[in-house]
Amino acid sequence: MSQTLNLTLKVWRQEGPDADGSFETYKAKNIPDDASFLEMLDVVNEDLIDNGRTPIEFPHDCREGICGTCGVMINGRAHGQEKGTATCQLHMRKFSDGDTIVIEPWRAAAFPVVKDLVVDRSPLDKIIEAGGYVTAPTGTAADANDTRIPKEAADSSMDAAACIGCGACVAACPNSAAQLFTSAKLWHLNSLPQGQPERYKRTEAMVETMEQFFGACTNHGECYEACPKEITLDFIGYMNRDYIKSKVKNRKLAGQQS
Amino acid sequence: MLPDSKVPAGPMAEKWTNHKFHSKLVNPANKRKFKIIVVGTGLAGSSAAATLGELGYEVEAFTFHDSPRRAHSIAAQGGINAAKNYRNDGDSVHRLFYDTVKGGDYRSREANVHRLAEVSTNIIDQMAAQGVPFAREYGGLLANRSFGGAQVSRTFYARGQTGQQLLLGAYQQMMGQVKAGKVKLHTNTEMLDLVVKDGEACGIVCRNLVTGEITSHSAHAVVLATGGYGNVFYLSTNAMACNVTAAWRAHRKGAYFANPSFTQIHPTCIPASDEFQSKLTLMSESLRNDGRIWVPRQLNETRAAKDIPEAERNYYLEEKYPAFGNLVPRDVASRNAKTVVDAGYGVGPLKNGVYLDFADAIARDGRDAIEARYGNLFQMYERITGEDPYTQPMRIYPATHYTMGGLWVDYNLMTTIPGLYATGESNFSDHGANRLGASALMQGLADGYFVLPNTIGDYLAPKLNQPLVDTDDDVFKESERLIEETTSHFLGIGGSKSPDHFHRELGKIVWNRIGMERDEEGLKSAIEEIQALSKEFWSDLKVLGDAKSLNSSLEKAGRIADFFELAELMARDALDRRESCGGHFRTESQTPEGEALRDDDNYAHVSAWEWNDKDTPQTKHAEELTFDEVPLTQRSYK
Amino acid sequence: MNKRKAVNLTSTVSPQKSGHKPLRETKKELPFPLNLYQSAVGKKWVMAITGLMLVGFVIGHMVGNLKMYLGVLEHDGSAAYDMDIYAEFLRNLLVPILPEGVFLWILRGGLLTAVILHIHSFYSLTRLNIASGRSYESKQDWLASNFASRSMRYSGIIVLAYIIFHILDLTVGATSDEFVHGAVQSNVVNSLSNPVIAGFYIVANILLCVHIFHGIFSVFQSLGVNNPNINRMKRGIATAVSGLILVGNVSFPVAILAGAVEYNECDPKLSVAEQVEENCVNSSGHDSDSDDDSHSESEGY
Question: Are B28 and B461 in contact (CB under 8 A)?
Answer without folding.
Answer: no
